[in-house]
Amino acid sequence: MRPRILLVEDEPGLVLTLTDRLEAEGYECASAADGLTGMRMALSGGYDLILLDWMLPGKAGIEVCREIRAEDRQTPILMLTARSQTIDKVVGLQLGADDYLTKPFEMAELVARVGALLRRAAPRETTTAAVTFGDVRVDLRSAEVTRGGQPVALSAREFQLLRYLIEHRGETVARERLLTDVWGYRESTLTRTVDVHMTWLRQKLEENPRYPRYLLTVRGLGYRFAG
Q1: Long-range own/partner contacts, residues 203-211 (CB < 8 A, 24 or more apart)
Q2: What span, in angstroms and rounded, lies between the C-alpha atoms of 90 and 153?
């Protein structure tokens, strides 16, 4: 079955161009031209990835992202934005986007990022159904995380990062490797992205985020899961 992509974009020319290219790459595409329609389609389920424009009529893309994440923690969201300020990108990631691409962009880069997000989101076979550390329980199959018996809302990227570290328990994993294997990036200049996501994970899962017991920094090298 071909992966299904929802494109929420109000520029007809870009919708046509993206649809043609993505379908040529083997994906099935559906589209919405405004935020409200896009949100309804996204929440109806059945999509493997969402391409979401920041500026949309009816409902801003960043609000659509927030509401999708409140209901769906796993479907990857790639935001398309004309905003190039770092703070805008950080806000998008904080509200649940898994990646962003600034307009104008090269189509080859978009295709590469779509492929990387889909690979990261694909379920992996694992011999351990669930992992427990402290008062945190991580179900690796259902992608559900609880702390003290209460659900913890993680973005798709946060869960993928946590799962990767768990699957490499006890191993020090370099930031560059995480960017390649979890994000699908190659640029070493983006290692701050890993640090930001680790900070968010610690705030949600560690008893004392400033002095973590399980999600450890190995200074000058990377990160290690010690659960």
Answers
A1: 204/147, 204/152, 204/153, 204/154, 204/158, 205/134, 205/136, 205/145, 205/147, 205/152, 205/162, 206/134, 207/134, 207/135
A2: 18
* Six-digit token string for 118: 């889909």
The closest alpha carbon to 12, from 45, 34, 42, 27, belongs to 34
> Residues, the chain, total?
227
Full strand arrangement of the beta sheet holding 150-151: 130-133, 136-139, 144-147, 150-151
Neighbours of 50 (CB within 10 A): 27
Q: Give the pLDDT confidence of 37-52 residue by residue, as tens digits.
A: 999 999 887 899 999 9
User: Taking the complete model, does pTM exceed 0.85, yes or no?
Assistant: no
Joined tokens for residue 48:
């493997």
User: Other C-beta atoms within 10 Å of 227: how many?
Assistant: 18
